[in-house]
Amino acid sequence: MSADATLQPLLDALKFSPDNLPLRQHLGGLLRQTGQPQPAEDLYREGLRYHPTDPTLQLGLADAYFALGKTSAAFVVVEELLGQHDDLGPAHLLHARLLHASQQPDAAREAYAQALRLDPGLADTTLANELQANAPRRVPASGPAPGFGEPASPAAPALLGLEKPRITFQDVGGMEAVKEEIRLKIIHPLHFPDLYKAFGKASGGGLLLYGPPGCGKTYLARATAGEVQANFLSVGIAEILDMWLGNSEKNLHQLFELARAQAPCVLFFDEVDALAANRHDLRQSAGRTVINQFLEELDGVSASNEGVLIMAATNAPWHLDPAFRRPGRFDKITLVTPPDEGARASILEILLKGKPLAPDVKPAAVAARTAGLSGADLKAVVDGAVDTRLRLSMRAGRPLPIEQSDLLDAAKLVKPSTKEWFATARNYALYSNEGGLYDEILVYLGVKKPGGL
Ligand SMILES: Nc1ncnc2c1ncn2[C@@H]1O[C@H](COP(=O)(O)OP(=O)(O)OP(=O)(O)O)[C@@H](O)[C@H]1O
Ligand SMILES: [Mg+2]
């Protein structure tokens, strides 16, 4: 072993106690950090004789092999490691690097996505950009974007929820019109890009969902990703702005870059009004530069957004800067109303799944008696019924199943939480309804006939 002299005392110490695992792990890390893969390899191989199944040593060895160009040896070790510890983010990351180095771009992207799912802090912009560069269905970027290739700020990815949702439109009760809208605007362009191009319709732009709280906007966005088997990257705008005052532009750029690297991907901005607050509302406004950066990313100025489905949700679309609604941006905004009867029944079914139920429980009958309640309100109903039964079970000293009357009684106590929202929305729709933007609200409230004037 020929490590540099500064580490010699530690290496000597290890020679005296070769089974000192923490010391060996530490020293291996130091050797790798200081670019000494050969002594690192020796150290890890020796260590594995004492601790043959230690994942840190295995990962270290694979990493040292990789650095030495011993790719197939590295593959063997890392794949064996993943066979035992599928939940090790850094192992998936190394796997991604190996797959990338051996020209297996699809598998590399999948491995990278898995690493980020397990630990968003592992984001590696350089790797992500390289993976993106040879991603299928992507137009090569015309040139490096600002901040391109810079390391991600360490806090940035930690806030990102990257996942591969399992729920699809089937799990979303009702909402047929909104689903159709999403299919037209987002899903078909993804599946038939050539057809859309032939008709001169650019894919891209985003879909803005708005509506009262608790009615499934976030849930629907996640289901959209599941529907097209895409990754789902969910971003809370307020958090981004709070976290990195002054650094938000770069973070926004990196976010879009991450989504592009994960394509197909649904990039979802929750509570987008926090970012896009109207210029007049200075206190809440994120500032012009951030808004401009967001619009630029949305327009795909620095890199194409092909394969990235951009969605956003808000309770207060009237606070959005009108620049957001220009063609190719959030030019279509869609109202997500409280669930109708069918949707309430399926939401109740989902909420009651796995709970002890008496044979008389009929979600459909509860749905018929809970007009106006949101998904979140229905959750309050079920929670109330559970509380009642728990109390009775305690008294009886044995578990008693939930009965229909528990649900109906609980429903009487829950007030529709969407009323207040509609009161506000009605005012905007009546008095600030440029271009019929909020007609859907008036139709829903029965003020206006569908399609009428
Ligand atoms: N149509 C639906 N089908 C099935 N479940 C639903 C539906 N609508 C709402 N839910 C349930 O209600 C919960 C609350 O919905 P969600 O968080 O998506 O509301 P939201 O519109 O994003 O609210 P907010 O504006 O407060 O963010 C969901 O987690 C889901 O379980
Ligand atoms: Mg939400």
What are the main properties of this structure?
alpha/beta; 6-stranded mixed sheet; binds adenosine-5'-triphosphate; Helicase, Ruva Protein, domain 3; 21 helices; Serine Threonine Protein Phosphatase 5, Tetratricopeptide repeat
Structure in words:
The protein has 453 residues and is α/β, with parallel strands linked by helices. It folds into 3 domains: 5-122, Serine Threonine Protein Phosphatase 5, Tetratricopeptide repeat (Alpha Horseshoe); 163-335, 3-Layer(aba) Sandwich (Rossmann fold), CATH 3.40.50.300; 341-413, Helicase, Ruva Protein, domain 3 (Orthogonal Bundle), CATH 1.10.8.60. The chain has helices spanning 8-16, 21-33, 37-50, 55-67, 71-84, 89-101, 105-118, 125-133, 176-191, 193-198, 217-227, 237-243, 248-261, 273-276, 288-299, 341-352, 363-368, 375-396, 404-413, 419-431, 439-444, and strands at residues 161-163, 206-210, 231-236, 265-270, 308-314, 332-335. It has a 6-stranded mixed sheet. The longest helix has 22 residues, at 375-396. It is globular. It starts with 7 loop residues before the first helix and ends in a 9-residue tail after the last helix. The model is unreliable at 136-159 and 279-285 (pLDDT under 50). The structure holds adenosine-5'-triphosphate (ATP) and magnesium ion. Magnesium ion binds at residues 217-218, 270, 313.
